[in-house]
# Entry
Amino acid sequence: MKIAIIGSGAMGSLYGGILAENGHEVYFIDVFKEHVDAINHKGLCIVKDNEERYIKNVKAVVDSSSIGIVDLAIVFVKSTITDIAVEGNKSILGKNTIVLTLQNGLGNIEKINKVVDISQIIAGTSANGASFIGPGKIRHSGHGGTVLGEISGEKTKRINEIYRIMNLDELGNAKISENVMSLIWEKLIVNCGINPLSALTNLKNGRLLETRESEEILENIVAEAIEVAKKSNIKLNFDNADYCKEVCRATSENTSSMLSDVLNNRKTEIMNINGAIVRIGKELGVDTPYNEVVTNLILLKEKSYNK
# Structure
């Protein structure tokens, strides 16, 4: 299958690299020229359990105009620039191209739909962990699998095909969901609890449960997000913060993506995570004071960069 990775940071590189290892024609697309050049020069280096391996049968580009139409485009850019990234790479998207979002936050499907027909979009979540070491080099820290689904919930021929290519040992077991929107919300709620708290405290995920203060804030953030989900008629598989805490423990040594952004003075995805809960809560008449406070604190932190 001819596959393009739109946004080839840590997670995009991980998926693209492993798919290339398994015989697919993979193109990395990213604006980080040093990363692109390093991949083209030496291949992509994946570090796992302190062992390095190089994947060389890939091509990386800053400008995708030479790639041509692909069978599958996987979107991994930050949710803040989804519309810009998809619009900027529409030359690779034909009428039969499947566009898969495995991004964090809400609103990505709607942004992609501005460029391609809704029928071309499938969605999912990833429980893999990856971090960026340097240009052309990433660390793979967990392979928890991928869950995929049609937005309509149907089990189609194409979703079975994407499941087949994603169901790899290196990525963990893949699953097909008939209610992928609920899974996106569930991941959103977990991110609401973990990401801003870790970014504000400079703590790895597991340490958020080591003090009563941070655990209590996490519980209240999650409780508000669950209430917003319920008011949005989203069926969840949990009704309290226990699942979020399980994720904290399972990823105890992970540095959250939002903490990594803050440490590197980058714009975060706060407005598509906790900020989305605040926005939807206001529309539905649900109070979300904890989410509003952490959203504003992260925005304030972004404004303090390099000052």
Summary: The beta strands are 2-6, 25-29, 44-48, 51-55, 58-61, 72-75, 98-101, 121-134, 137-150, 174-176.
